[in-house]
Specification:
mainly alpha, 411 residues, 76% helix, single chain
């Protein structure tokens, strides 16, 4: 703990941010339904966040290099807090789209600051332990935050105020962090063509993760409300899908290090596809069947991003791993922009079950593409791979460095 103690303020700040972001994603969708927004309008609002996040990923490193970590964090936290309050002051789809876009940009920057700062402070002696705690903070804060919704209620201004307070209070622990500001991070270069040249399958896979997983986060509450779930059941539905993401991460990752990674990607996509069909066709309005289905969906779907990133790194040359990190995040953001918007129109036309039919179709097409790629390119033998599977968060490009083993963390 003596190695971890200096990092506790940053980990607490990360927990507040991750929990607040997860709470807001579910709450905004439910509150929008209560305000009479259509599913397509809610999809547009969700798209606003993802557009902002994509822009933030591209430009935040320049901001940190220009004014430093703590000033960047303070400015973005204040803006995001103000945007949360503005949403309750003026309830209108265009206003909410703009505020969510601003919040997406801010959260991309806030996560980048925390993870860049952590990466600068972590050592080889505590890297693995810090990463384990960070993942526990991620899982615990998002899961617990969901239950603030039924505890507080979705009407009134209370949850908007709580989210705003959380963003403001996130400044407190980071202000008590190591008083020496870390060195500015290296500039992150986004080269879209580079990732495609390295691995078309990983590129398409990251887009698919954005089209499906991000759509679940944005429109899962709309689906659950549409089949008649209570607010508490909706919180449970979302929590189960998020929590399940950790269950198969390491088994799938372990076998992907030993076998052709594309085979494991295919297994994960197949499991997600079958779970989506189960929810759409079998589960109906039964809450427990929906919980079982979303658990299976999360268990198979959530590891896909890390598997695709690992596959891209298998084909990356020395010095290209930073491009892979930036590229996978960018293409995930691209899918996350398109997915909720398209799926929301499907919900408008065909009802709530269209959500999981849509995701199942996307995953089926991805499976066919994976099979096609397996016929045109040989896999990298396990003994020739320079990197192992790593369980990644889609928060910033700096998480890849934080998650890297000691021999790779300088990349």
């Amino acid at each position: 703990m003596s190695h971890i103690r200096p990092l506790i303020p940053l980990l607490v700040t990360a927990g507040i941010l991750i929990g607040g972001n997860g709470l807001q994603a579910t709450f905004v969708s439910l509150r929008a339904l209560r305000e009479g927004f259509s599913p397509s309008t809610i999809g547009l609002v969700g798209t606003g966040y993802n557009i902002g996040f994509a822009i933030g990923c591209i430009y935040v490193t320049r901001i940190i290099r220009s004014i430093g970590h703590i000033r960047t964090f303070s400015a973005l936290a204040a803006i995001a807090s103000a945007a949360s309050i503005a949403m309750v002051l003026y309830i209108h789809p265009l206003s909410w789209f703009a505020m969510r876009l601003i919040q997406g940009l801010c959260f991309a920057g806030l996560f980048a600051v925390v993870e860049s700062w952590l990466n600068a402070r972590v050592t080889n002696a505590n890297r693995a332990r810090t990463l384990s705690i960070y993942r526990f903070v991620d899982l615990g804060s998002v899961t617990c935050a969901q239950y603030l919704i039924p505890a507080v209620g979705i009407d009134g201004f209370q949850l908007f105020a709580i989210i705003s307070m959380a963003l403001t209070l996130s400044l407190v622990p980071i202000s008590f962090a190591d008083r020496s500001s870390p060195a500015p991070p290296e500039a992150v270069r986004f080269d879209i063509r580079a990732l495609w040249n390295i691995s078309p399958l990983a590129t398409v896979g990251c887009i698919v993760v954005g089209l499906t997983n991000s759509t679940f986060r944005s429109l899962g509450p709309v689906y659950a409300e549409g089949i008649g779930m209570s607010v508490t059941a909706i919180a449970t539905f979302m929590s189960v899908g998020i929590f399940a993401g950790v269950v198969l991460q390491y088994p799938l990752g372990h076998y992907s290090d030993k076998l052709d990674r594309r085979l494991i990607i295919l297994v994960a996509a197949l499991g997600s596809f079958m779970a989506g069909l189960f929810i759409a066709v079998v589960a109906g309005a039964n809450a427990w069947l929906n919980f079982a289905g979303i658990f299976a969906f999360g268990a198979f779907a959530m590891p896909l991003y890390s598997l695709c990133s690992a596959h891209a790194n298998d084909h990356a040359a020395e010095g290209q791993h930073a491009l892979v990190s930036a590229g996978t995040l960018f293409f995930w953001s691209l899918g996350a922009v398109i997915g909720p918007l398209f799926a929301s129109f499907m919900l408008d036309i065909f009802g709530p079950r269209a959500l999981f039919f849509y995701m199942s179709v996307v995953l089926l097409l991805f499976m066919l593409y994976t099979l096609q790629r397996m016929t045109v390119r040989e896999g990298v033998p396990a003994k020739q791979r320079t990197r192992r599977f790593r369980n990644l968060l889609r928060t910033s490009t700096f998480f890849n460095k934080l998650a890297a083993p000691p021999t790779e963390s300088g990349d």
